[in-house]
Design a protein that fits this description.
By secondary structure, the chain is mainly alpha-helical. It has one domain. The protein contains 14 helices and no strands. It is globular.
Length: 315
């Protein structure tokens, strides 16, 4: 009886952790979806300026918040972890956002957000090779649904202009960059027992801020064109808001989810960024989604549901 009670308590804890992880991932997606609107809010600024501004703000805020923990973190983070931080900051922040901002400018919010919806397929395929992952054969239905959703939006974009196709290419560049980040970030979170998810997020933020300093020269010094004081204030407000909501809060929620859920399920959770971004895009553009967009979103959601069902524990 004591063994049964212990097993039941353990199962209940696992269930609560799973629900907490899913909730954190959904909240992260709702905040990350706001990133897709940023280029539309400051149309006179380049993707390079947006990336530099956002991540300078992210790095500055993270540097302030990490000060109390830094003496301990410095002892725990060796040279290998610092190299990982550099790669994660570059792939998951700087490079990803440069591609994403250009994709939004050239192809629109809806197209860019739905293409990023392919992330669940990419991350789930990689995650299926991790320990404790669900066998790939059980993930086939969810992967097929997600692939069909991408095909819907890809078919509609192919009928558009050359700029839309270039935007589609930038969206795929963002996809590759963030897939690398999602997989390796999850692995490092599992490896670092003495570092909390919040502290790791701050460390990535500080590294991102250092890299953004390099971007600042071509972004703000070598770029031609001028802006009014009001435009610069608007740009600064958008950059700080995105840094706090998307980079600090959103990433912290995602890291918490990464420690509660297997990577193959985490891959499917990324679809909520797509859903929220598409919704924000339709509201911003004051239009209803097209038939292909509705089909794409429905198939992507179906892929998530199928993946969650595949991860359901067997009795």
């Amino acid at each position: 009886m004591a063994i049964d009670a212990t097993a039941a308590a353990s199962a209940g804890t696992i269930h609560r952790n799973t629900l907490t992880g899913i909730g954190a991932a959904i909240l992260a997606g709702s905040l990350w979806g706001l990133v897709f609107l940023a280029p539309e809010l400051v149309p006179g600024f380049t993707a390079l300026q947006l990336s530099a501004g956002r991540y300078l703000a992210y790095g500055a805020i993270a540097a302030i918040l990490i000060v109390p923990s830094w003496p301990r973190l410095r002892r725990q983070l060796g040279a290998r972890a610092l190299r990982a931080l550099c790669a994660l900051a570059l792939s998951g922040n700087i490079v990803y956002y440069l591609f994403l901002a250009n994709a939004v400018r050239l192809g629109g919010v809806a197209m860019a957000s739905i293409v990023i919806g392919l992330l669940p397929i990419a991350v789930t395929l990689v995650g299926s090779r991790e320990r404790h992952a669900v066998p790939l054969r059980r993930l086939v239905p969810s992967l097929l649904l997600s692939a069909a959703g991408l095909a819907c939006i890809g078919w509609e974009t192919a009928a558009g202009s050359a700029a839309s196709l270039l935007g589609l290419g930038c969206a795929f560049g963002a996809l590759v960059s963030w897939t690398f980040f999602a997989v390796h970030n999850s692995r490092w979170l599992a490896r670092l027992d003495g570092v909390s998810a919040h502290e790791w997020n701050l460390a990535v933020g500080v590294m991102t801020g250092v890299q953004a300093l390099v971007l600042a020269v071509p972004a703000f010094v070598l770029t031609t064109g001028s802006h009014s004081t009001a435009s610069w204030l608007r740009f600064g407000g958008v950059a700080v808001a995105v840094a706090i909501l998307c980079s600090l809060v959103g990433n912290a929620l995602w890291n918490r989810a990464s420690r509660a859920l297997p990577m193959s399920l985490m891959g499917q959770m990324i679809v909520f960024e797509t859903i929220f971004a598409a919704f924000y895009g339709f509201v911003w553009e004051a239009r209803w989604p097209s038939g292909a967009e509705i089909a794409a979103l429905a198939l992507l959601v179906g892929g998530v549901i199928a993946c969650a069902a595949a991860h359901r524990e067997r009795r």
